[in-house]
Amino acid sequence: METTANRKQIFKFGLYGFLKNLKFFEPFLIVFFRLSGLSFLQIGLLYSVREIVIYIFEVPSGVLADRYGKKTELVICFLFYILSFIVFFFGQDFYIYMVAMVLFGLGESFRSGTHKAMIMSYIDKNNIVESKSKIYGKTRSYSLIGSTVSSLAAIFLYFYFSSIAWLFIIAIIPYVLDLILILSYPSYLNEKQDSSFSFKGFIKENVNSVKYVFKDKAILGLLIGSSSYNAGFKSIKDYIQPLIVTITLSVIIFTSRSPEDNTVIYIGVIYAFIYLISSFASLNAHKISKRFSKDKVISFMWILSGVSILILSLFIESLFVLIFVFLSVYVFLNIRKPLMIEKIGDAVSENRRASVLSIDSQFTSLLIAIFAPILGLIADVYSISVMLSLVGCTMIIIYVLKLVISKEIPTT
Length: 412
Prior knowledge:
The chain is 80% helix and 0% strand. The chain has helices at residues 4-20, 29-35, 40-68, 70-90, 94-111, 114-125, 132-161, 166-170, 172-183, 199-215, 217-236, 240-248, 259-283, 285-291, 294-314, 319-347, 353-381, 384-406. The radius of gyration is 21 Å and the shape is globular.
């Protein structure tokens, strides 16, 4: 039932996402690396290092959350994040940034899946009748509003401090607040299954979680569909930054500002607009599933995203096309993701959700770790346009192959 206490806790879930997404540096990360003298290959390698760390620690972190406490794990994850921000601030070369990426990857692996599992657990324990996709979509919309605020605030913070590096330090403030917020969650959401740590039991539970996924073809299919789509999106989303840099060199709107200042303004405003519309899409994703088959919506996003990215690769010098395509792809992701999370949550037993959602993130990380350096090398040797066309064609081919194999709209 929906009560005042329930509404308050769901608001806290949303506030968590809002604060978590106040990563003021995020829209400018590739620009930050490029200004530090890094090539696209080196940037791809940094992303690969981060994803390898996530891949290694995803399942263990999910098991730790399920066995020894979800709140405890989230507190640990925010400590890793804060350390990574400090290293980014002081770092000046590729190898220091690699250390920061390792710490950031540890934070990601300890966070991913855990908070979603807490939301699902709260819904189940409090007999809330609203669909998981509606509530998750609502909390995710808070996260995207946080990204909107972050992108706009980052413009003013950059002008005040005259350095992207300071944005890492400022991001520590909302992360400390989020850590405190997590501690205020109901104690039963910690859901400890063991009060003391056993290394043997920990390893056994890791193996059992992986077996659980691979024994159930339906769950495995859901995770492969989820992770491959997310990996495709994450592998190319940040390339909007160098594209905007290229465009701003020829189109200077704020003539009293330097080209670098114009770039920061462009990126901040464009990302803010994209995140705001994506928030609306996430909030209303559950309504789409009422009108159309959930499986069809999830599957159709493959070809919509692939065609959009392919169009961008052909009109890469158009600011209008750039904004429209990236907005479209973000909207597709934020319609698809709440529906996908609900399907996974419904298919998985409650005491395995954090572990299974961590395996989903692990699959995503493995794919990004493999393809991020390759895509970076293609962008260096050929162009970002060629790289985007390959990603777009691949997504279209995946959708067509699924249709050919199943002879119907696929389910993942």
